[in-house]
Amino acid sequence: MASLPEYVPKPGDWPVDPQHDVPIDEHRIWIDGCFDFSHHGHAGAMLQARQLGKELLVGVHSDEAILENKGPTVMTLKERIAAVDACRWATKSIPHAPYVTSLPWISHYGCKYVVHGDDITSDASGEDCYRFVKAAGRFKIVKRTPGISTTDLVGRMLLCTKTHFIKSLDKALSGEEGSGSEQERKQDGQQMKERIKVYSSNETGLEPGSEVWVWHQGVESKTAEPSGASDDGKCTKMVDGIAPKKGQRVVYVDGGFDLFSSGHIEFLRSVVEKEEAEGRQQGWYSSEATQQRISETGSDYGPAYVVAGVHDDQVINHWKGVNYPIMNIFERGLCVLQCKYISAVVFSAPFTPTSSFLNSLPYGLPSVVYHGPTSFMPSVEDPYVDARKLGIFQEILSHDFSHVNAGEIVGRIMRSRAQYEERQRVKGVKGIGEEAVRRREEMEREESAKAAEREALRQSKA
């Protein structure tokens, strides 16, 4: 196949500024890819790339380029850009970056080096996508994150497997749960703990950032509904990080955050935006207040400290059935940790944030508990009844990505199964067959019917 001439935009045509070439800086790093699903493997690549420099520019390929070279994307370019922009280690996203990494493109944006994982990426002709930057001596390799990929996640969806579930995060981290020998389990658990720690780093990827906690339920809840929630438990710290600073409002959000996507990201961004607006009204951004924070702490910071609670696998599976969550609690927690809108994470947070739980949070009762406009895990009862009684509940209104959740993403895969199966086949993954597809579709219908019944019952009680 003859190669098409390389497209190099003219000033005014570059997808994002600057429009004129900037000096090449060896501390400005380039990484590119499809970034289909914002899973922790992608975040891990960006983290390692960021650790090699002081700025990280992230090239994101167009839907059309990916279709031509690899197959269909699950997420749109707009959704993929939102995910990249939310990664705390990304300085700037560059949409429509060429599929074959281009020296004129990386040089235009002043990047000295390109970083990629230690796997091989080829274009439609079977040639190395990084051949030009390798030949120029401007390529660096980082380790590929094991155990996670877009291909893996699509396989879980199509096959309805549950082998990725984690029953107890504590036991998985200590090596008591998992596959393999005792020594292998302990080694896996230690690697998981190390990954949680590094994903909690700040925007440099080298210094402490988010704090990480685990909620330990003292007594098992009597029922899955909020009225049966247990009040007994405590938070224990897993990773030291940056605690709330003087004047910051601590706010709490929670969820499954399965297949961490633009829907979750836009909700979290909206929380921060709302808190910034509140801070602006209170004079947070006045020159006097800004100077005082800098003089007292050495740097400025925002008005909100966002704590995100992440539910256990069995909690999500109780409400959604089938094989949700598609990502286990470890994987979902890493996705939340890498998000720049988050200040701290609480693993194994309860589905119902009771008054006792909210007061037991590491920083005391939060100023606000936020929730999105819709629920992917509908309950007959209101999980936020205590937050409402305390007068600290607020809802984020509908946004452009409100419809994007794990169910929507799985639906996209199922509707275009033939195309995704071909993509899997190219990667050496065996096809699943019509029977498996019918089983998934039937399970989804059953769970949708259950959800509709719960919603009808909830409405009758309202």
Q: How is this structure best described in words?
A:
Pathway: Phospholipid metabolism; phosphatidylethanolamine biosynthesis; phosphatidylethanolamine from ethanolamine: step 2/3; Lipid metabolism. Residues 174-193, 437-462 are annotated as: Disordered. Its EC number is 2.7.7.14. InterPro entries: CCT, Cyt_trans-like, Ect1/PCYT2, Rossmann-like_a/b/a_fold. Belongs to the cytidylyltransferase family. It is a single chain. The chain is of the alpha/beta class. The chain has 2 domains: 25-146, 3-Layer(aba) Sandwich (Rossmann fold); 199-407, HUPs (Rossmann fold). Helix content is 39%, strand content 15%. It has helices at residues 40-50, 63-69, 77-86, 103-108, 131-135, 150-159, 169-174, 182-199, 262-281, 287-297, 313-320, 329-337, 355-360, 385-389, 406-415, 417-426, 433-461; strands at 25-33, 55-60, 92-95, 111-117, 139-142, 211-217, 233-239, 249-255, 304-310, 344-347, 368-371, 393-395. The strands form 2 sheets. A 7-stranded mixed β-sheet has the order 7-6-10-9-8-11-12. Strands 3-2-1-4-5 form a 5-stranded parallel β-sheet. Helix 3 packs across helix 9 and helix 6 packs across helix 16. The mean pLDDT is 89.
